[in-house]
């Protein structure tokens, strides 16, 4: 893989955003950012690393290092990385598609020119890699959606979407982890709990995990 130049941008005085300006969702590039995060965790000046979608936010202690030195250290790490694959878990997510559980299924299928049955079949045949967690506790940003299923997000977000809702937003799939407003389209629902604050590991997902959606039921 060709090493893309790293773009470093200050986000205030205590955070540096690392990205490459690469527009397309790229698993190999994401793996490189995961590797960068692991390398930087051991640095004395690094307080926290937060993986994003093909980027990384590095929270630093400005009293521990100068600005120029911090940027140089991160860039040196990037150029010397050995890229690795995260050995994530494979998680099966049973889904009740359509009907009262997936009120937008008919609409999104019509938009892309498929029957609801074909839309669900293609959605359930995919393998979705968790790139990062964000937006709400336990919500995984997933790569791997068949682009023939992509539909722009709703112009008017709903004020309440139930936890467990299986959703589509643009070229991404996801599962709402906490009841909240959302502009993503609801195509189904799962009983699997993606965020449990009382659990020893509250979030079900972690970067590198792979999700497979399984058809539990289908109502066109």
Automatic annotation (TrEMBL):
Keyword Hydrolase in annotation: yes
SUPFAM superfamilies: Cyclophilin-like, PH0987 N-terminal domain-like
Keywords from the UniProt entry: ATP-binding, Hydrolase, Nucleotide-binding
UniProt KW Hydrolase keyword: yes
Domain named Carboxyltransferase: residues: 6-205
Entries under Pfam families matching the protein: CT_C_D (PF02682)
Molecular functions per Gene Ontology: ATP binding; hydrolase activity
NCBIfam families in the cross-refs: 5-oxoprolinase subunit PxpB (TIGR00370)
Protein name as catalogued: Allophanate hydrolase
Source organism of this protein record: Rhizobium tropici
Upper lineage: Bacteria, Pseudomonadati, Pseudomonadota, Alphaproteobacteria, Hyphomicrobiales
